[in-house]
Amino acid sequence: MGNQATIRLTMAQALVRHLAAQFIEIDGERVRLCAGGFGIFGHGNVTCLGEALEAHREELPLWRGQNEQSMAMAAIGYAKQKLRQRFMFATSSAGPGTTNMLTSAGIAHTNRLPLLMLCGDAFATRLPDPVLQQVEHFNDPTISVNDAFKSVTRYWDRIVHPAQLIQSLPRAIDTLLDPADCGPAFLGLPQDVQGWAFDYPLAFFEEKTHRIRRQAPDELEIADAADMIKAAERPLIVAGGGVQYSRAVSELTGFAEKFGIPVVETIAGRANLVYDNPLNCGPIGVTGSNSANALASEADVVVAVGTRLQDFTTGSWSAFSKDARIISINAARHDAAKHRSMPVVGDAKLSLSALMNKMTDYATPQSWRERAAKEREDWDSYLDVNMSTVTKEGSNRPASYAQVIGAINRVCDPNDRVVAAAGGLPAEVTANWRTHAIGTVDVEFGFSCMGYEISGAWGARMGQAETEPDRETIVFIGDGSYLMLNSDIYSSVLSGMKLIIVVCDNGGFAVINKLQNNTGNTSYNNLIKDCNLAVEPFAVDFEAHARSMGANAETVESVAQLEEAFARARASDRTYVICLKTDPYEGWTDEGHAWWEVGIPEVSENPKVASARKELDENRKQQRVGL
């Protein structure tokens, strides 16, 4: 290092010290970039990385989760709540502790969210090989289970010498903050290398203040997009999650209102506009609304802002007219160029402002605006009926998801945050939730991961508590997801991060049973009663289970009781779980769905399946042929 001032530290000590020296400027306030992390220690990370983390426990607080997968999910929930401006890390030992995080890495990768994974690895020297939990590859000793993360990370490295950290750790952090390439970063940390010492330059530990890059759009792309919109007779804006990450909600709203362009939202883009904005025409796609999908089918120019245009948004590319022209505004070139879109590669906030300046003389035709208003009004009327608790006299059917969602929507604070993921609830929340405050909805339906609900909400609550401690984080979860991953109820109680969890028990995986039936198949292996059983099917006592983990809990029998229970949950000093039965067969939100392509057997002896296949082939004719 010549005459450069240095300090001798282990690789693990240097990693933690560098991480603690990173800051970010948010709305003029300088805060630590990494808010801490989640960790379960084992032999692969406790002795060296654990020693370093303990020494920095004030700057980088470490929370012990109950499962590596759920810890990483909590870090993802935190990052999403903070609009990708801050992140948390998750650390595990070698072997199964690490592979438990693969699913979480998939969530972060799919949803373009920052997650730093610091995972143990086999010895770089290989002297003690094979070691505990090492998976041996006979023909390639450089491979470990950590290589599995290459397919679900944006940045991957294995630190085999302490000096490599000087290059690799800043690159990982850059990836976490890059709007165009944001996603999970993985560092494999061999057990021996964690403890190896190196003379690190003191400059490596100087405090650094980051600012998230805003990429200005190309002037020619803006000009082309402006010309296309100005020629439109039926324009439509599709607002994705990138609008919020860019903090471009005001620009989106101003752009839509100035030109009178209807706005529809993706699943990730829910809560870009408040419900009562007259230009908010509902969610689009497979889990969308009649209003949004009707407008999408007739729009001649679609302005997609901050969305990756996945199949639930596009109805497997059947939602838009084949003749519709798409303008895609996105910081990521890969997303901006999808399906013959006219790309505007750039930050949403800057791009919308630039477009507005180019379109001073445009106004959406009045007939299209009136059509959008009528579609919106009709959908709103449908929701009133769909979420109504008025039932036929003498009916004793359990509540529907829509009724449960409507009840919580009525009694919660406008700024409370709702979290849902996978199963039937994402569709029902997306379609039925009436947003009263910007950025208050987190529906994880990119990777559609069961189990994210409670763990992601735990992390989201940490972020929410920093700025809005008086607001609630509300979880909608089905019995299937609850049974899959629930241990962070205990984590939330231990950490004082209160959640309100609504458990909708419909006796199994009811929405997949619905899909199974709708494609002509017989109910099998989804509802508990339709599985291979050695005993009569029985219901889980979710209330007792939640209480055993330290939460307050109760079971209710009706939507009216649910509303009363929510008041008690709000008054509770700790996580509160409310359980109720919901209907596995009736009460689904059947309106508003765009077509969704799923695989159906081309040959089957079941005539219902054969009929479903014929319908699939017909619907394929409506697909927009893209790239």
TrEMBL record:
Gene3D superfamilies to which the protein is assigned, alphabetical: 3.40.50.970, TPP-binding domain
Gene Ontology molecular function: any one: thiamine pyrophosphate binding
Top EC class for this record: hydrolase
Region ranges (Disordered): 608-627
GO BP terms: inositol catabolic process; isoleucine biosynthetic process; L-valine biosynthetic process
SUPFAM superfamilies registered for this protein in UniProt: DHS-like NAD/FAD-binding domain, Thiamin diphosphate-binding fold (THDP-binding)
Sorted UniProt keywords: Hydrolase, Thiamine pyrophosphate
Sequence ranges assigned to domain Thiamine pyrophosphate enzyme N-terminal TPP-binding in this UniProt record: 38-133
Top-level taxon in the UniProt lineage: Bacteria
Keyword Hydrolase applies: yes
All copies of domain Thiamine pyrophosphate enzyme central, residue ranges: 222-355
Bias type Basic and acidic residues, positions: 612-621
Domain Thiamine pyrophosphate enzyme TPP-binding residue range list: 440-578
InterPro entries: DHS-like_NAD/FAD-binding_dom (IPR029035), Myo_inos_IolD (IPR030817), THDP-binding (IPR029061), Thiamin_PyroP_enz_cen_dom (IPR012000), Thiamin_PyroP_enz_TPP-bd_dom (IPR012001), TPP-bd_CS (IPR000399), TPP_enz (IPR045229), TPP_enzyme_TPP-bd (IPR011766)
CDD domains on file: TPP_PYR_POX_like
Keyword Hydrolase attributed: yes
A Gene Ontology cellular-component term: acetolactate synthase complex
Documented EC number(s): 3.7.1.22
Family under the similarity heading: Belongs to the TPP enzyme family.
Record's protein name: 3D-(3,5/4)-trihydroxycyclohexane-1,2-dione acylhydrolase (Decyclizing)
Organism phylogeny: Bacteria, Pseudomonadati, Pseudomonadota, Alphaproteobacteria, Hyphomicrobiales
